[in-house]
Amino acid sequence: MVAHQADDVARPASTRVQRKRGRRIEKIITTAAELFGERGYDAVSLEDVAERLDVTKGSLYYYFASKDELATAAIETLGRDWTARLDALLEKTTGTVAERLRALIHEHVTIAVRDYPAALRLFLVPREWPAAQYERIKALRQEHDRLFRTLVEEGAESREFTVTSVATVLQCMHASMSQVPLWCAQLPVRARRRAIDEVTDTLMMLVGVLPPDRAGAPEGS
Fold first, then answer.
1. pTM for this structure?
2. What is the DSSP string of 91-118?
């Protein structure tokens, strides 16, 4: 009887410890991703990560054995989380291909601006990374690109979209989305939401789709 009661007390305590550890790891990874995005892989040390977290370097070794291991965790966590959230959005989004692409762009830009404004740059210059991380970044970027490419190709084939070429549209789209946090992340909340909406409308025009309030308007109005 006493042993069972002890087990019941231990389990919640163990769960709390696991949650606390999970939150700590998430904070370390997010901070490291921001620093790698801001400065590049070579310019960041574990001391830099510890300083930004206001902890000792030794405490980081409890979670990650090296800078290389921490960098790999940051790449995997950020890349997989981002793609999974976009995948989940598409699974529950119905409608025309234009409506689905608009939702995808809007969600991507929102995540970039709200959740990962600095860390997004971690994926922009993969050739600066060691070979192993470079290959993983490239693979994650391809998974991410697939979500957009599938919709742009579908719209082009159905003639719902008018494009110069799928490749050019995707290059312009990704280049624009990668820059949005640089000028949008620090805006006040209402202005930021409006900017995200306007960026989404602008990028939809790359496939020949006018903003909802402009569709059907007389030319020149």
1. 0.82
2. HH--S-HHHHHHHHHHHHHHHHHHT-TT
